[in-house]
Amino acid sequence: MSNSTYGGQGSIPDLAVRYSGVPSRLSQEAIDAKSKLFSQKTLPDSVARRRTALPPGVSRENFDQAIAELRSALGQENVELNDKPLVDGWYMEHPNTHDAYHIADQEELIASAVVYPSSTEEVQKITRWANQHKIPIYPISMGRNIGYGGAAPRIPGSVVVDLGRRMNKILDIDADNASCIVEPGVSYFALYEEIQRRKLPLWIDCPDLGGGSVLGNAIDRGVGYTPYGDHFANHCGMELVLPTGELLRTGMGAMPGKDGADNPTWQSFQAAYGPYVDGIFSQSNYGIITKMGFWLMPATSHQSYMITFPREDDLEQIVEIIRPLAQKRVLGNVPQLRHVIQELAVTGKPRTHWYNPEGSKNKRGGQMPRDVIRQRASTLPCGDVSWVFYGTQYGDEATIAAQLDLIKKEFAKVRGSKFMLPHQLPQDHYLHSRVAVCSGVPALRELDWLNWVPNAAHLFFSPISPTKGKDATVIHSIICRLHAKYGFDVFPTMCVAGREMHYIANIVYDRADRDAKQRATSLMREMIREAANQGYGEYRTHLLFADQVAETYSWGGGALRKFNETVKDALDPNGILAPGRNGIWGKRFRGKGWEILDGDKRDMLKDGISPKL
Ligand code: EUG
């Protein structure tokens, strides 16, 4: 089957020819994933644009003048106007012009232009240009922050700085130190393949999907699944451009090496001397990171497994069993606990395959009834269960065996639980994909969820839960009750870090269905509010919910917000860098109607997201 058959958008890029492409070992899988997704697409590839995007308060004439200047500084071909029809594409052929998984109108979170710097120096030039023209810029590494806004800027008409296209070098892999230093355009796929090519006994750590930027995911504080799963915690050293164009190296990189070389301990010691500043460049709009170091894990033996639990109510006991195992690092990585409905979704078959009550249409939502899920699950290898735990153990054979004995013994306390190894499951079972991801082999399998509904988009609700049965149950019941109210199936994935779990609820919706978009938006707003009322906050959120989430961190009269704003105004006096990212606005934009706080009355689909200036 030719991979250009679908969608008329050209072929799937290969990693050998494009930095954002798919490695050849996965090219058939990518072709299949795309064909499945596109077979469910009812939207056209693109529609005619209805408006032009300009930065707020900048006239067409001034904008054209500014763009001409930028082009003469960086080269004509390295600045593109975003004046063509928008194409949502799909994961491997994703846009850098807007949010492919739009929840407002497709033309809301949109760039006016995209610029492609080739060096840190050119990034400095861009920031100086932005300050001169008071044009907001929005840096992306690769733009695959899917479910959280993708490549989209928060202020319509911002100029997107696409760092990855021309800054995608693995600058160094130090096999002795087990570390690397990369530019923003290095994907998990690319780093993994290079380590294989060099035959180094090292692992990377990747999230569920392998196409994202190693650097970008880490500064958004993303998570992966080996013992090095906390990406930010395993970074070591940064080089970055401040909003006013000055350069900064953090960690030991702040000390010059011998004869002008990079410091030899830049990727060995994180903090250096004085305040540890790296943290303020994560989930912020205080700088543009152009180089970042990471620790790599020495390769080891590993054994993945799955444990099923029969009852919904087992959640509390499961989490109580997990906690001490995680604290003692018997669970040495980031295991996942999922609901059984995901066993259906991750087969890649659409919801209508499992449940089709009123023909092909299922307007205004509604959940798949529990008894239908039970009946369908009973036809799958997991059987009629409620929860599925995906774990992996590491070390030599004896260590793994001893750990597995303990783990089996502990989880056996849950009546009716079952332990399964990969060889006991069919070749296409999801556990085999966990084996890869949990041993640092980046994959694509997670895309299969997206076939649940036509034109599927998704949105993550991502609160932090203590690893305690009672708290997990409270959060889970808020999420279930509100998903039922707004008519969405509940897809929970609890990623266990230790003392806390990232509870990720994945809202999958049809982006052609305005009603579904509105319900998804209301569902997010209400979950954020209700969780916060119980003291539970999100670790990360989609751009459009950033203000509301930031607002929930209100202790001490909004002390954290005030601190963030003080830093923002000091570092970025013109407020040009990624205004609104993570709810942080410079003084130029603050309090002028951009913030979308709890109780905001605008209907994002009808009224848009910009204040009437
Ligand atoms: C997932 C995990 C995340 C996240 C978004 C998605 C997993 C989905 C732990 O963080 O932020 C299967």
Automatic annotation (TrEMBL):
Organism the protein comes from: Exophiala xenobiotica
Protein name (Swiss-Prot/TrEMBL): FAD-binding PCMH-type domain-containing protein
All residue ranges annotated as the FAD-binding PCMH-type domain in the record: 107-299
Gene Ontology CC terms: mitochondrion
Cofactor requirements of the protein: FAD
One example GO MF annotation: D-lactate dehydrogenase (NAD+) activity
One Pfam family linked to the record: FAD-oxidase_C
PROSITE patterns: FAD_PCMH
GO biological process: lactate catabolic process
Keywords: FAD, Flavoprotein, Oxidoreductase
Classification via SUPFAM superfamilies: FAD-binding/transporter-associated domain-like, FAD-linked oxidases, C-terminal domain
InterPro entries: Cytok_DH_C_sf, FAD-bd_oxidored_4_C, FAD-bd_PCMH, FAD-bd_PCMH-like_sf, FAD-bd_PCMH_sub1, FAD-bd_PCMH_sub2, FAD-linked_Oxase-like_C, Oxid_FAD_bind_N
Highest taxon of the lineage: Eukaryota
